[in-house]
Amino acid sequence: MRTLYSWRTRAETYATVPMLALVLLQGAAVVDTATPGYRTAATAKADLMLFIVVPLCAACAAWEGARHRIGRIDTLTIARRSWQVALIAVAPTLVMGLLGIAAAVAATAPAAAGAPGLPDPWLIAVYLLVLAGHTIVGYGLGRWLSPALALPISLAGSYVWLAYPAAIEPFWIRHLNGLSFEGCCAIDQSPSPRALLATALFAVALGAGVLIALAGTRRMRAGGAATLAVLLVVAATVALPLGPSAGAPRTGAVRCDGSRPVLCLWPEQEGSRSLIHAALTSAYARLVDVGMPLPAVVTTKDAETPDAIFVVLAARPQRRGVVLSLVASAVPDTVPDCATRGEWPGANNRGALMVWMALAAGVPTSDLGDVAPPEFIDLASRVRQLTNEQQLAWYHANLAPLKDCSVQPQLDPSAFQDGAG
Questions:
Q1: 382 and 350 part of one domain
Q2: Residue 324 resides in a domain
Q3: Which residue among 202, 219, 249 closes a domain?
Q4: Domain range enclosing 260
């Protein structure tokens, strides 16, 4: 049996260049939506291009399977086993897919320009497994169906499976096809091991089931179906506890340094440490003057300790963003149970408290116009005209309605001018 065919008869010869062009074009369109300065997020965003790469590879493999079907390869006496024949047949298709995935990762890499580390190897490994699974299924369809059915089913079926689960519930189904990672990850997140494993198991189930069934005997077809079923059940079991997000808390340690406050940052944020610390030091000093108690540690890794406050920061934040993130973390983000049963008097209190705290921390009024409504800015500006003690009393009086629906807001600063608040 010949192991190599003329490249003129391979579908990959004509599909590779258009595929790469589409991948690079799509990658340029989505690169700005990845978390900047974080290589894992850039690699995760590359999975959007699987929409292009994987269905095309499945269709190319179906074409090759159809050629084997037409050539009646099942009736020939050959030295190689059926799975070896299949892998040799789809090898050029897998090379094409590998080029497509490499182009996708390269297209989104500018989002992490200058960041430490390398593209996430686990994500890339999962992308390759998804590619291999769909490619082998495409080849199998080409062997079992007429070309008029195999090619459109391979192309459309692959695309629909990649696209449709994101629009449906339950959420765990979204973590089986490999397209759930594009929204991952914030800088304090990494891909969920469960999501990676579930996707990998599903892809292996597809490929292994088809490779076993290609032997053609009744026993092997039954074995392929059993392998597929078992791995699908395991993949679904792994994915079952997952919600809509494929992100999980990032492992590893942040580096802590400085004082008043101690600042703990991820490696991607180290280049901005001096700016971040200067902004926090200034904000801390101003808020302490007002009487606001603040933890001794600011960390960008979620910590459930009372002496640390968790803030969400970009790899290269601006001073305003640092202070606003501190403010957002300092004001409790709570919704009392009673809010689900009726009117919640404190529904607007958090926004007003955050604007006041931002002004107290040194953010100019002119810098809040794009993040807060004018009425909150006007209210907080009037509160800032009170003494420090009166401002702190106003803050605590309006903090209580965030936790208790029976406590009415006291947003009018005039009520505190004589200490009545």
A1: yes
A2: no
A3: 249
A4: 252-319
In one letter, which amino acid is 165? P
Tell me which DSSP letter residue 315 carries.
Answer: S
How buried is 263 (Cβ within 10 angstroms: 0-12 exposed, 13-18 middle, 19+ buried)? buried
At 98-138, the pLDDT tens digits run 999 999 999 999 999 888 889 999 999 999 999 999 999 99
Reported as a single tens digit per residue, the pLDDT across 145-165 is 998 999 999 999 999 999 888
> Distance between CA 212 and CA 231 in Å, rounded?
13
**214 by DSSP, 3-state: which?**
coil
Give the sign of the dihedral formed by CA 208, CA 213, CA 219, CA 224: positive
Q: How far, CA to CA in Å, does 20 sit from each of 49, 56, 273? A: 10, 11, 39
Please give, one letter per residue, the 3-state secondary structure of 1-22: CCCCCCHHHCCHHHHHHHHHHH
Number of domains comprising the chain = 3
- Pick from 283, 399, 309: nearest CA to 351: 399
Whether residues 287 and 335 share a domain: the answer is no
Q: 326 lies in a domain?
A: no
* DSSP code per residue over 280-308: HHHHHHHHHHHT----SEEESS----TTE
Boundary residue ending a domain (249, 282, 307): 249
Same domain, 365 and 272: no
**Is there a single domain that holds both residue 221 and residue 265?**
no
Largest CA distance in the chain: 100
Helix (H, G, I), strand (E, B) or coil at 184: coil
N-to-C CA span, the chain: 91
pLDDT tens for each residue of 26-50: 999 999 999 999 999 999 999 999 9
Statement to judge: residues 81 and 38 lie in one domain? yes
Residues 303 and 396 in one domain: no
For the four alpha carbons of 347, 348, 350 and 353, in that order, the dihedral sign comes to negative
pTM of the model: 0.86
Residue from 66, 53, 51 nearest 150 by CA: 66
Please list, in sequence order, all residues whose beta carbon lies within 8 angstroms of the beta carbon of residue 282, skipping any fewer than 6 positions away. 361, 362
